[in-house]
Structures are given as C-alpha cells and as structure tokens.
Design brief:
The protein is mainly alpha-helical. It has one domain. 66% of the residues lie in helices and 0% in strands. The protein has helices at 6-21, 34-41, 53-71, 78-87, 92-98, 103-130. The model is unreliable at 26-31 (pLDDT under 50).
Length: 134
Amino acid sequence: MPGMKSNDIQQLLTQWARWTKTGGVDVGYPHCTTFYRQSKLGGWGAKPLMIGDELAGRVDRAVAALELRCRHRPEDKRYAMLEGVYLKGQWIYKVAERHRLDRRTAASALHAAESWVDSQIFTDEIFVALAPRE
C-alpha cells in the first residue's frame, strides 16, 4: 500500500464502495442472493470484487475516522465528497452543487479525502507490523 498512486487509491475506494454495497464484512447473516448482488453491482456483466475483507475493513475504518472528524467540523467537506462520489456514485460537480462548493474546492476536498484514507491505511499497516506476536 505505501506509495500508492492516486488512481490506485481511487480504485481501492471504488472497490471498497462496491464491497459495502454487497454487504460488507460477513457477520453471520445470510449472504445476498446472486441475483440481488448482481443487480446492485450493475447487472450480470459486473466484474467480481477485487478487494478482500481485511483490506476493505481497513479502508472502512479509515473512512469512519474521516467521517467522525468531519462531523465535528461542518466546514470540512472531505467526507461529504467521498460519500457522494464513491458511496452514492454521484458526479463530483453534483456533489459540489449540493454542498455549495465550486468545482475546484470540491475536487480539492475529494483529493484530500483520498489522501486521508491512503495515509490511514498506511498507518494501519505500520501498527499491524509492530503489533506483538503471540
């Protein structure tokens, strides 16, 4: 993960968003039916997920931390941009209009959100590597 290109983090966030739409982590509930999963992901021609539960969970924790930070700062639109573009699949200019931002500010906020997630995943990897082995 360290040194990811910006399009790598964008692809990772896209895969994470698809992962969340298919049900996320297995918590013991019945899985979605194949038909339901395929219809949510864009039909039968949809590509299978390329992200595992462990990596998706790390992305999920990073996004949740960003949401918590932005909740206490209404002027911080990073999570709003990330949610609109990746989770809701909206065009960036539509999300910008809804939040009354110009396109450049919206693009900057989205890039900052992507960088936040990238840095949090990298930090998570360091903690995992330094954790004591049992």
